[in-house]
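Need C-alpha coordinates for this chain, all 296 residues.
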Amino acid sequence: MRKFVVPVAALLLLLFPLVATALDRPFYITLVTRMLILGLAASSLNLILGYGGLVSFGHAAFFGLGGYVVGILALNGWQSAWIAWPFAVTVTALVGLLIGAISLRTRNVYFIMITLAFAQMLFFFFTSLRVWGGQDGIRFDRSTVGVGIDLVDNITFYYVTLAILAFGLLLLHRLLHARFGHALRSIKSNESRMAAIGYPVYGITLIAFTIAAALAGLAGVLNANLNTFISPASLSWPLSGQLMMMVILGGVGHFWAGVIGAALFLLLETVLAGYTIYWQFGLGAILLFMVLKVLR
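Here are the C-alpha coordinates for all 296 residues:
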Protein backbone atom coordinates (compact mmCIF):
# COMPACT_ATOMS: atom_id res chain seq x y z
CA MET A 1 0.00 0.00 0.00
CA ARG A 2 2.89 2.39 0.75
CA LYS A 3 3.97 2.22 -2.88
CA PHE A 4 0.63 3.71 -3.95
CA VAL A 5 0.21 6.37 -1.25
CA VAL A 6 2.82 8.81 -2.56
CA PRO A 7 1.78 8.66 -6.26
CA VAL A 8 -1.90 9.01 -5.33
CA ALA A 9 -1.15 11.94 -3.01
CA ALA A 10 0.96 13.59 -5.74
CA LEU A 11 -1.85 13.15 -8.27
CA LEU A 12 -4.39 14.66 -5.87
CA LEU A 13 -2.12 17.64 -5.23
CA LEU A 14 -1.69 18.17 -8.98
CA LEU A 15 -5.43 18.08 -9.59
CA PHE A 16 -6.43 20.06 -6.49
CA PRO A 17 -6.22 23.62 -7.98
CA LEU A 18 -8.34 22.57 -10.94
CA VAL A 19 -11.01 21.13 -8.64
CA ALA A 20 -10.93 24.15 -6.31
CA THR A 21 -11.28 26.51 -9.28
CA ALA A 22 -14.17 24.51 -10.70
CA LEU A 23 -15.93 24.69 -7.30
CA ASP A 24 -15.13 28.42 -7.02
CA ARG A 25 -13.12 27.93 -3.80
CA PRO A 26 -9.88 29.91 -4.40
CA PHE A 27 -9.32 30.23 -0.64
CA TYR A 28 -8.42 26.55 -0.42
CA ILE A 29 -5.66 26.97 -3.01
CA THR A 30 -3.98 29.51 -0.74
CA LEU A 31 -4.56 27.27 2.29
CA VAL A 32 -2.94 24.23 0.68
CA THR A 33 -0.09 26.42 -0.59
CA ARG A 34 0.57 27.41 3.03
CA MET A 35 0.53 23.73 3.98
CA LEU A 36 3.16 22.99 1.35
CA ILE A 37 5.36 25.88 2.48
CA LEU A 38 5.14 25.03 6.17
CA GLY A 39 5.59 21.37 5.25
CA LEU A 40 8.98 22.24 3.77
CA ALA A 41 9.93 24.30 6.84
CA ALA A 42 8.83 21.55 9.24
CA SER A 43 10.66 18.91 7.18
CA SER A 44 13.86 20.93 7.49
CA LEU A 45 13.40 21.00 11.27
CA ASN A 46 12.70 17.27 11.27
CA LEU A 47 16.13 16.72 9.71
CA ILE A 48 17.92 17.96 12.83
CA LEU A 49 15.22 17.15 15.39
CA GLY A 50 13.98 13.78 14.24
CA TYR A 51 17.18 12.41 12.75
CA GLY A 52 19.86 14.39 14.59
CA GLY A 53 18.26 14.72 18.02
CA LEU A 54 18.91 18.49 18.04
CA VAL A 55 16.02 20.37 19.64
CA SER A 56 16.29 23.81 18.04
CA PHE A 57 13.93 26.44 19.37
CA GLY A 58 15.08 29.11 16.96
CA HIS A 59 14.34 27.51 13.60
CA ALA A 60 11.90 30.28 12.68
CA ALA A 61 14.88 32.65 12.52
CA PHE A 62 15.97 31.04 9.23
CA PHE A 63 12.37 30.98 7.96
CA GLY A 64 11.96 34.70 8.59
CA LEU A 65 15.46 35.62 7.41
CA GLY A 66 14.85 34.08 3.98
CA GLY A 67 11.66 36.12 3.69
CA TYR A 68 13.36 39.34 4.74
CA VAL A 69 16.23 38.94 2.27
CA VAL A 70 13.89 38.40 -0.69
CA GLY A 71 11.65 41.24 0.50
CA ILE A 72 14.53 43.70 0.84
CA LEU A 73 15.84 42.73 -2.59
CA ALA A 74 12.37 43.26 -4.09
CA LEU A 75 12.16 46.75 -2.58
CA ASN A 76 15.48 47.58 -4.24
CA GLY A 77 14.39 46.38 -7.66
CA TRP A 78 15.79 42.84 -7.54
CA GLN A 79 12.58 40.92 -8.17
CA SER A 80 13.94 38.16 -10.37
CA ALA A 81 13.45 34.82 -8.64
CA TRP A 82 16.52 33.48 -10.45
CA ILE A 83 18.65 35.98 -8.50
CA ALA A 84 16.73 36.80 -5.31
CA TRP A 85 15.76 33.28 -4.26
CA PRO A 86 19.21 31.64 -4.53
CA PHE A 87 20.76 34.68 -2.84
CA ALA A 88 18.27 34.50 0.05
CA VAL A 89 18.92 30.77 0.52
CA THR A 90 22.69 31.36 0.42
CA VAL A 91 22.50 34.10 3.06
CA THR A 92 20.32 31.91 5.26
CA ALA A 93 22.71 28.96 4.87
CA LEU A 94 25.70 31.14 5.84
CA VAL A 95 23.89 32.49 8.89
CA GLY A 96 22.88 28.93 9.78
CA LEU A 97 26.51 27.85 9.43
CA LEU A 98 27.62 30.62 11.79
CA ILE A 99 24.89 29.95 14.36
CA GLY A 100 25.42 26.21 14.13
CA ALA A 101 29.20 26.54 14.56
CA ILE A 102 28.57 28.19 17.92
CA SER A 103 25.42 26.41 19.07
CA LEU A 104 26.62 22.86 18.34
CA ARG A 105 29.36 23.22 20.93
CA THR A 106 26.58 22.83 23.48
CA ARG A 107 24.00 20.11 24.06
CA ASN A 108 20.58 19.48 25.62
CA VAL A 109 18.93 22.48 27.31
CA TYR A 110 21.94 24.70 26.57
CA PHE A 111 21.52 24.05 22.84
CA ILE A 112 17.81 24.90 23.09
CA MET A 113 18.51 28.16 24.87
CA ILE A 114 21.36 29.31 22.62
CA THR A 115 19.33 28.71 19.43
CA LEU A 116 16.46 30.63 21.02
CA ALA A 117 18.87 33.44 21.93
CA PHE A 118 20.14 33.75 18.35
CA ALA A 119 16.57 33.79 17.04
CA GLN A 120 15.63 36.56 19.47
CA MET A 121 18.69 38.55 18.41
CA LEU A 122 17.55 38.44 14.78
CA PHE A 123 13.97 39.21 15.83
CA PHE A 124 14.97 42.40 17.68
CA PHE A 125 17.46 43.32 14.94
CA PHE A 126 14.73 43.52 12.29
CA THR A 127 12.25 45.04 14.76
CA SER A 128 14.62 47.93 15.41
CA LEU A 129 15.26 48.76 11.75
CA ARG A 130 12.61 51.30 10.74
CA VAL A 131 14.03 51.55 7.24
CA TRP A 132 12.71 48.00 6.71
CA GLY A 133 9.39 48.58 8.44
CA GLY A 134 10.35 47.85 12.03
CA GLN A 135 7.52 46.10 13.85
CA ASP A 136 5.13 46.77 10.96
CA GLY A 137 7.17 44.81 8.43
CA ILE A 138 7.39 45.51 4.71
CA ARG A 139 5.17 44.91 1.69
CA PHE A 140 6.52 44.12 -1.75
CA ASP A 141 5.50 42.58 -5.06
CA ARG A 142 5.99 38.91 -5.82
CA SER A 143 9.14 37.81 -7.54
CA THR A 144 9.22 37.37 -11.29
CA VAL A 145 10.40 34.29 -13.16
CA GLY A 146 9.81 35.07 -16.83
CA VAL A 147 9.66 32.24 -19.43
CA GLY A 148 5.87 32.50 -19.39
CA ILE A 149 5.50 31.87 -15.63
CA ASP A 150 3.44 34.44 -13.73
CA LEU A 151 3.86 34.04 -9.96
CA VAL A 152 1.14 36.63 -9.34
CA ASP A 153 -1.36 33.96 -10.36
CA ASN A 154 -2.11 31.87 -7.26
CA ILE A 155 -2.50 28.64 -9.22
CA THR A 156 0.89 29.11 -10.88
CA PHE A 157 2.45 29.95 -7.53
CA TYR A 158 0.87 26.79 -6.08
CA TYR A 159 2.52 24.59 -8.70
CA VAL A 160 5.89 26.32 -8.25
CA THR A 161 5.63 25.73 -4.49
CA LEU A 162 4.68 22.09 -5.04
CA ALA A 163 7.68 21.60 -7.34
CA ILE A 164 10.06 23.17 -4.80
CA LEU A 165 8.63 21.03 -2.00
CA ALA A 166 9.13 17.92 -4.13
CA PHE A 167 12.73 18.98 -4.80
CA GLY A 168 13.35 19.60 -1.09
CA LEU A 169 11.90 16.23 -0.07
CA LEU A 170 13.89 14.45 -2.78
CA LEU A 171 17.06 16.11 -1.49
CA LEU A 172 16.27 15.06 2.09
CA HIS A 173 15.43 11.51 0.99
CA ARG A 174 18.71 11.11 -0.88
CA LEU A 175 20.60 12.67 2.02
CA LEU A 176 19.04 10.47 4.70
CA HIS A 177 19.55 7.28 2.73
CA ALA A 178 23.21 8.05 2.04
CA ARG A 179 26.05 7.30 4.44
CA PHE A 180 25.70 10.83 5.78
CA GLY A 181 22.12 10.15 6.86
CA HIS A 182 23.04 6.86 8.52
CA ALA A 183 25.87 8.60 10.37
CA LEU A 184 23.52 11.38 11.52
CA ARG A 185 21.04 8.86 12.94
CA SER A 186 23.85 6.97 14.63
CA ILE A 187 25.06 10.18 16.26
CA LYS A 188 21.58 10.71 17.64
CA SER A 189 21.60 7.15 19.00
CA ASN A 190 25.09 7.22 20.54
CA GLU A 191 27.22 10.29 19.98
CA SER A 192 30.10 9.14 22.18
CA ARG A 193 30.49 5.86 20.32
CA MET A 194 30.46 7.57 16.92
CA ALA A 195 33.18 9.97 18.08
CA ALA A 196 35.20 7.09 19.53
CA ILE A 197 35.29 5.20 16.23
CA GLY A 198 36.49 8.26 14.34
CA TYR A 199 33.41 9.96 12.88
CA PRO A 200 33.55 13.79 12.73
CA VAL A 201 30.47 14.28 14.89
CA TYR A 202 30.71 18.06 15.02
CA GLY A 203 31.15 18.37 11.24
CA ILE A 204 28.26 16.05 10.41
CA THR A 205 25.84 17.82 12.74
CA LEU A 206 27.01 21.22 11.47
CA ILE A 207 26.34 20.23 7.85
CA ALA A 208 22.88 18.94 8.81
CA PHE A 209 22.13 22.16 10.71
CA THR A 210 23.24 24.29 7.73
CA ILE A 211 21.13 22.29 5.26
CA ALA A 212 18.12 22.58 7.56
CA ALA A 213 18.65 26.35 7.79
CA ALA A 214 18.88 26.67 3.99
CA LEU A 215 15.65 24.71 3.43
CA ALA A 216 13.87 26.75 6.11
CA GLY A 217 15.09 29.91 4.36
CA LEU A 218 13.71 28.63 1.05
CA ALA A 219 10.35 28.03 2.75
CA GLY A 220 10.53 31.57 4.13
CA VAL A 221 11.13 32.93 0.63
CA LEU A 222 7.98 31.17 -0.60
CA ASN A 223 5.96 32.31 2.41
CA ALA A 224 6.98 35.95 1.97
CA ASN A 225 6.07 35.81 -1.73
CA LEU A 226 2.74 34.17 -0.97
CA ASN A 227 1.75 36.95 1.43
CA THR A 228 3.75 39.71 -0.37
CA PHE A 229 4.60 40.74 3.19
CA ILE A 230 7.23 39.98 5.83
CA SER A 231 7.44 41.11 9.45
CA PRO A 232 9.46 40.23 12.57
CA ALA A 233 6.67 37.81 13.55
CA SER A 234 8.14 35.39 11.00
CA LEU A 235 11.29 35.17 13.13
CA SER A 236 9.58 34.88 16.51
CA TRP A 237 9.87 31.95 18.93
CA PRO A 238 6.11 31.14 18.79
CA LEU A 239 6.57 30.19 15.13
CA SER A 240 9.50 27.97 16.10
CA GLY A 241 7.17 26.31 18.59
CA GLN A 242 4.53 25.81 15.90
CA LEU A 243 7.06 24.18 13.57
CA MET A 244 8.03 21.85 16.39
CA MET A 245 4.37 21.05 17.00
CA MET A 246 3.98 20.17 13.31
CA VAL A 247 6.88 17.73 13.50
CA ILE A 248 5.41 16.15 16.63
CA LEU A 249 1.96 15.89 15.06
CA GLY A 250 3.44 14.19 11.99
CA GLY A 251 5.64 11.85 14.03
CA VAL A 252 9.18 12.89 14.97
CA GLY A 253 11.79 10.99 12.99
CA HIS A 254 9.43 9.87 10.21
CA PHE A 255 10.26 11.16 6.74
CA TRP A 256 6.80 12.61 6.06
CA ALA A 257 6.43 14.10 9.54
CA GLY A 258 6.86 17.71 8.39
CA VAL A 259 4.36 17.56 5.52
CA ILE A 260 1.73 15.57 7.43
CA GLY A 261 2.18 17.66 10.57
CA ALA A 262 1.83 20.95 8.69
CA ALA A 263 -1.34 19.75 6.96
CA LEU A 264 -2.85 18.55 10.25
CA PHE A 265 -1.86 21.73 12.08
CA LEU A 266 -3.43 24.08 9.52
CA LEU A 267 -6.53 21.89 9.15
CA LEU A 268 -7.06 21.84 12.91
CA GLU A 269 -6.43 25.59 13.09
CA THR A 270 -8.96 26.28 10.32
CA VAL A 271 -11.64 23.96 11.71
CA LEU A 272 -11.24 24.88 15.40
CA ALA A 273 -11.04 28.61 14.63
CA GLY A 274 -14.48 28.31 13.03
CA TYR A 275 -15.92 27.32 16.42
CA THR A 276 -13.97 29.38 18.93
CA ILE A 277 -11.33 32.09 19.16
CA TYR A 278 -9.56 29.86 21.69
CA TRP A 279 -8.63 27.29 19.06
CA GLN A 280 -5.10 27.04 20.49
CA PHE A 281 -6.57 25.37 23.59
CA GLY A 282 -8.13 22.58 21.55
CA LEU A 283 -4.99 22.16 19.47
CA GLY A 284 -2.89 22.01 22.62
CA ALA A 285 -5.15 19.32 24.08
CA ILE A 286 -4.78 17.20 20.92
CA LEU A 287 -1.01 17.63 20.96
CA LEU A 288 -0.86 16.71 24.67
CA PHE A 289 -2.89 13.58 24.02
CA MET A 290 -0.56 12.52 21.20
CA VAL A 291 2.57 13.10 23.31
CA LEU A 292 1.15 11.14 26.25
CA LYS A 293 0.16 8.34 23.92
CA VAL A 294 3.71 8.13 22.55
CA LEU A 295 5.24 8.15 26.05
CA ARG A 296 2.83 5.45 27.09
